[in-house]
Amino acid sequence: MKTLIIENIDLKKIGELKTVSRYFCELPDIIALGEGDIPGNYGKAWQSSQTLPPNLVPSIVQLAKLENYEVILLSVSTLGTGLAGPLSAALSAPVVTEVTAIHSDMVIERPIYGGKAIIKQKIESTPVVLTIRRKYFEPEVLEGHTSSIPLNTESEKVQLISEKNEQTDGVPLEDAPVVVSGGRGIGNADNFSLLQTLADQLNGAVGASRGAVDEGWASPTRQIGQTGKIVAPSVYFAVGVSGASQHLAGIANSKCVVAINKDEEANIFNRARFGLVCDYQKIIPQLTQAIKENR
Ligand SMILES: Cc1cc2nc3c(=O)[nH]c(=O)nc-3n(C[C@H](O)[C@H](O)[C@H](O)COP(=O)(O)OP(=O)(O)OC[C@H]3O[C@@H](n4cnc5c(N)ncnc54)[C@H](O)[C@@H]3O)c2cc1C
């Protein structure tokens, strides 16, 4: 099937979409956004420094019609989500969002009800627009580069006035191998420093539940869950987090969940591989010290 990847120039993001494209075709085409070489091999490649969805839509639609793409692949990201709806409308194509698995015969899986259930859907018509959840597909190792044709993006419906990058110390949350998350049970903003010390020992990042964010103890950029970030670390520590379904929706693909909660009935223990029923203030310093001594 004729497949088009649309993504920023980013090895991992493009690598994941390239893996997904293998379910549909041997060699996809790509529209790569941003500056720099396009990593990997493609049938045809277009490039644009424009990254704002409203300015990209008209030219992508024109190209998609001209090239008769059957599958358009995007990541679940600001860019992908911003493009998926307008492309679907303009191309009269169904859109399937948050895809987490693909089977033969165009059957895909995606979470529903905030991650409480997984639905299998069969795609019966093309073109189709798919947004793919990050970290569910092993990124293909991209070798070499493909030369590109400039994508003609004349219309400037939206202008970027300024950009403020999120300030993160250390590893970005989404890429961290270990995430230590705090919930309302942490009690106050200062106590998050205990979690930061543990995360630092493990080369990890600190996340938060919405409970903690609503209290003003953690930045909204740290929120994990249905309305926050989706993470999939090797180890996820949920500290003073009750385990509401909206929080669990953000950690569904985490490999090992360690829950620390003083309430043995807390729902987080249903998701955890390891659970500690105790006051986190007693265990976190000890755990941090033990890791320090055993490094
Ligand atoms: C539309 C919608 C979207 C939402 N999106 C999100 C989302 O993206 N992410 C998210 O997280 N939530 C989200 N929520 C909110 C969610 O429903 C919960 O309210 C929230 O996750 C609760 O946060 P919490 O677990 O930190 O707090 P609580 O539910 O108050 O739990 C605190 C936990 O800390 C434990 N505790 C207390 N003291 C200690 C201690 N000293 N040591 C150890 N444990 C202790 C308690 O036993 C309790 O289990 C959403 C809700 C809605 C309606």
Automatic annotation (TrEMBL):
It comes from the Bacteria. Its cofactor is FAD. FAD binds at residues 184, 209-210, 223-227, 240-247, 261. GO terms for molecular function: electron transfer activity; flavin adenine dinucleotide binding. Residues 53-143 form the Electron transfer flavoprotein alpha/beta-subunit N-terminal domain. Binds 1 FAD per dimer. Gene3D superfamilies: HUPs (3.40.50.620), TPP-binding domain (3.40.50.1220). Keywords: Electron transport, FAD, Flavoprotein, Transport. It holds the Pfam family ETF. GO terms for biological process: fatty acid beta-oxidation using acyl-CoA dehydrogenase. The keyword Transport applies. Residues 173-251 form the Electron transfer flavoprotein alpha subunit C-terminal domain. PANTHER family: ELECTRON TRANSFER FLAVOPROTEIN ALPHA, ELECTRON TRANSFER FLAVOPROTEIN SUBUNIT ALPHA, MITOCHONDRIAL. Belongs to the ETF alpha-subunit/FixB family. This is Electron transfer flavoprotein subunit alpha EtfA.
